[in-house]
UniProtKB/TrEMBL annotation:
PROSITE patterns: ACYL_COA_DH_1 (PS00072), ACYL_COA_DH_2 (PS00073). GO terms for cellular component: cytoplasm. Residues 111-207 form the Acyl-CoA oxidase/dehydrogenase middle domain. One of its GO terms (biological process) is fatty acid beta-oxidation using acyl-CoA dehydrogenase. Residues 1-107 form the Acyl-CoA dehydrogenase/oxidase N-terminal domain. It comes from Oryzicola mucosus. Residues 220-368 form the Acyl-CoA dehydrogenase/oxidase C-terminal domain. This is Acyl-[acyl-carrier-protein] dehydrogenase MbtN. PANTHER family: LONG-CHAIN SPECIFIC ACYL-COA DEHYDROGENASE, MITOCHONDRIAL (PTHR48083:SF20), MEDIUM-CHAIN SPECIFIC ACYL-COA DEHYDROGENASE, MITOCHONDRIAL-RELATED (PTHR48083). Catalyzes the dehydrogenation at the alpha-beta position of ACP-bound acyl chains. This results in the introduction of a double bond in the lipidic chain, which is further transferred to the epsilon-amino group of lysine residue in the mycobactin core by MbtK. SUPFAM superfamilies: Acyl-CoA dehydrogenase C-terminal domain-like, Acyl-CoA dehydrogenase NM domain-like. GO terms for molecular function: acyl-CoA dehydrogenase activity; flavin adenine dinucleotide binding. Its cofactor is FAD.
């Protein structure tokens, strides 16, 4: 029911304006608020904090609807199943009351700021520094490639509170950007895909926040908190991957039935049939694996290695499916007016963010 509702909302409210958001390279706040009113924000947060009291299965239904409708730049998945859980799992009661209901309504738009110009795969290299000064932190540093970076007004920031301790000196601190001075947004970065998402640079120049904005009871827990949340973040990339594969396949099957060459439908060529038979088989395998990962995650048992497998294998599959489907569209597949062209561009980053697929293989290899 939630999937149907999300699909209807996204088709009626977002899809008609999506081209405009792609051109402007940013969504509007109104769409976030509408999504909040429709119950699509914080579906897995408890009702006492303004959420819908659901689980990751509910988030999965919403993300699948986003990719099936084809509005992949709408950054609510990250807000819902990456940013909000940090506050739910590590926030104090006061922090949860303060931030989660406003995230559920769309008043606050969430971002997670880990990556820096000099620290991507190797997050231990984070240089952004938070120094204690009385009952405040003074924060200096810069972040890049931050999803929702222009719109976000609640940022979970990865900082060093004690650089000498390396990973153990890392802490997560929440910044409500409307309430601080010294915070600046840099460029809305010019990307090859996911154009409507405002991926940006962020700068922190002597930004002061109360020490009570720390997530967790003591400093230095940031790395452990990040590691604990990574399985869900990686699984969520798998959600987008499998749903986009399914959409690519459905669009392509429709197209090759209609398109004629040499006096017959493109589907009538044995090459087309074999290609699509292979892709359909692999996407079915991907779906079964994905569903199994979700079931394990809901039961509390999705280990980091399997989550890494899901992220890497499903995003690789997505790249392959979208590329081979585009080929069956011929020249039309290269035209932006055909959704498969945008899917080809949007799919590419899935193998890069959330930990690159090489890093995923490294994590899997450690378990051998
Ligand atoms: C559109 C987009 C949105 C993003 N959103 C966010 C966000 O919201 N928040 C955020 O914090 N970050 C975000 N990122 C950043 C993303 O997570 C990083 O780009 C990613 O982790 C890789 O880091 P890097 O770009 O510095 O690449 P690098 O770490 O410089 O890697 C370069 C290459 O080296 C390889 N490599 C690195 N280390 C190893 C190793 N040990 N063994 C083998 N190969 C290795 C990598 O796999 C890659 O192929 C986003 C990125 C993009 C493009």
């Amino acid at each position: 029911m939630l999937y149907d509702m999300a699909h209807r909302f996204l088709s009626e409210e977002i899809e008609p304006r999506y081209e405009e958001f792609e051109k402007k390279e940013i969504f509007d706040r109104e769409s976030w608020k509408k999504a909040g009113s429709a119950g699509l924000l914080c579906a897995s947060m408890p009702e006492e904090y303004g959420g819908s009291g659901g689980t990751f299965a509910h988030e999965s239904a919403i993300i699948e609807a986003i990719s099936h409708v084809g509005v992949d730049g709408f950054g609510i998945a990250l807000h819902n199943s990456i940013v909000a859980p940090y506050i739910l799992h590590y926030g104090s009661e006061e922090q949860k009351q303060k931030w989660l209901p406003r995230m559920a309504s769309g008043e606050l738009i969430g971002a997670i700021a880990m990556t820096e110009p000099g620290a991507g795969s190797d997050l231990q290299g984070v240089k952004t520094r938070a120094e204690k000064d009385g009952n405040q932190y003074r924060i200096n540093g810069s972040k890049t490639f931050i999803t929702n970076g222009q719109l976000a007004n609640l940022i979970v920031l990865v900082t060093k509170t004690d650089p000498a301790k390396g990973a153990k000196g890392t802490s997560l601190i929440v910044i409500e950007t409307d309430e601080v001075e010294g915070f600046e947004r840099g460029r809305n970065l010019d990307k090859i895909g996911l154009k409507s998402n405002d991926t940006s640079e962020l700068f922190f120049n002597d930004v002061r926040v109360p020490t009570s904005n720390l997530l967790g009871t003591v400093e230095g827990e940031g790395f452990v908190q990040l590691m604990q949340q990574l399985p869900q973040e990686r699984l969520q990339i798998g959600t987008t991957a499998i749903a986009m594969c399914e959409r690519a396949l459905a669009l392509t099957i429709d197209y090759v039935k209609e398109r004629k060459a040499f006096g017959k439908a493109v589907l009538d060529f044995q090459n087309t049939q074999f290609k699509l038979a292979e892709l359909k088989t692999e996407v079915t395998i991907g779906r079964v694996f994905y569903n199994d990962c979700v079931a394990r995650h809901l039961a509390g048992g999705l280990d980091p290695v399997t989550a890494s497998m899901a992220k890497y294998w499903l995003s690789d599959l997505q790249g392959k499916v979208v590329d081979q489907c585009l080929q069956l569209f011929g020249g039309y597949g290269y035209m932006n007016e055909y959704p498969i062209a945008r899917m080809f561009r949007d799919a590419r980053v899935q193998r890069i963010y959330g930990g690159t697929n090489e890093i995923m293989k490294l994590l899997i290899a450690r378990s051998l």
